[in-house]
Amino acid sequence: MDQGRKTTGYYGSAKLASVCLIFIAAIAVGLALICGTATAAPEEIQVYMDDLSKPGGFGVDVHNNFVMSGSGTPDYPGAQPPNHVYRLTPEFYYGISDTLEAGLYLLTTTTPGNPTNYDGEKLRLKYIAKHDETQGPFWGANLEIGKTSLRVSQAAWNTELKGIYGYRADRWTFAVNSNFDWSLSSPSSPVSLDIDTKFAYKTDAGYQIGLESYNELGPLRNLGHLNQLSQTLYGVVDIELGKFDLNAGIGRGLTTASDRWLFKFIVGTHF
After folding, report:
1. Strand partners, 64
2. DSSP state of 250
3. What's the rounded Cα separation, in Å, for the pair 195 and 31?
4. How many CB atoms lie within 10 A of CB 179?
5. What pTM, to 2 d.p., does this model score?
6. Residues 158 and 149 sit within 8 Å (Cβ to Cβ)
7. Rounded distance, CA 3 to CA 108, Å?
8. Residue 2 pLDDT grade (very low, low, confident, very high; cuts 50, 70, 90)
9. How far apart (Å, rounded) are the C-alpha atoms in residues 105 and 155?
10. Which among 2, 40, 119, 253 is placed 20 to 30 Å from 47, CA to CA?
11. Which DSSP string do the residues of 36-77 spell out, in sequence order?
């Protein structure tokens, strides 16, 4: 009887947490209508999937990416030119329930011949609805708030609401993220939209190969002009090595507004 009460209480708490996230997301959308936009977050070049830490479990991802060939001109006064910038971003996360996870990013950047800069931190809350983890659809949302330096963002306080949807069929996996970005520091700036996608195929050897695309669509009030915005396509591989997960890829910018060649490497583990 006591065990049954504990189980009922646990699922009740999980449901309450999920409802809270949806409520927060609704507030975020409301804020987005009156707040501005933030630039994309190059420190986390990834398509969000349905992975979550188990309740009470911890995990860490180490995000690495390097602009092998990019512009040597700052995007705005005070910005760090993207050419040859290396970004190392540890991400720590904790499973709150079987549908909810909290995370923390710590941002750093390094350029050749210069010391490493600490560029701020971001907090996130990720919700994934219950689903079959092997086949069929999955969906969720991720809310992120961060304070960053002028080197990586014109606005100090930024927010992102990310929609997550995916589908698995046999060896194939498809996922798409719709990212609504805005600034809490610049109310006059518009909300911007990015779309990230992933196609992956599981090989006989167990690892996945595929493509990831990261596409800026611009402010919601004036979508389009894609040739003037960053559009990048990556060839990627996903591998499980014991307790470690690896995502690595080489990216090619498709427009003059994009970095030309990039390399990314994410390694993670759960405790």
Report:
1. 88, 265
2. E
3. 20
4. 22
5. 0.82
6. no
7. 46
8. low
9. 17
10. 119
11. ------TT------S--PPBT-EEEEEEEEEEEE--SS-SST
In the chain, domain spans: 2-270
DSSP state of 157: E
- Residue 67 makes CB contacts below 8 A (sequence gap 6+) with 82, 83, 84, 85, 86, 259, 261, 262
Contacts of 40 (CB under 8 A, 6+ apart): 179, 181, 194, 214, 216, 230
The whole-chain average pLDDT of the chain stands at 86
For the chain, the straight-line distance linking the first and the last C-alpha, in angstroms and rounded, comes to: 31
Question: Is 151 in a helix, a strand, or coil?
Answer: coil
* Chain centroid, CA 201 distance in Å: 21
CATH of 2-270 among 2.40.30.170, 3.40.50.620, 3.40.50.300, 2.40.160.40: 2.40.160.40
Coil/strand/helix, residue 111: coil
Structure tokens, 193: 């939209």
- Burial class of residue 130 (count of CB atoms within 10 Å of its CB; 0-12, 13-18, 19+): exposed
Q: What is the pLDDT of residues 155-182, one digit of tens each?
A: 899 999 999 999 999 999 999 999 999 9
The CA-based dihedral angle spanning residues 20, 185, 79, 67, taken in that order and rounded to the nearest 10 degrees? 10
> 77 is written with which tokens?
């006064």
From the list 119, 110, 109, the residue with the least C-alpha distance to 147 is: 119
What does the DSSP 8-state code read for residue 108? E
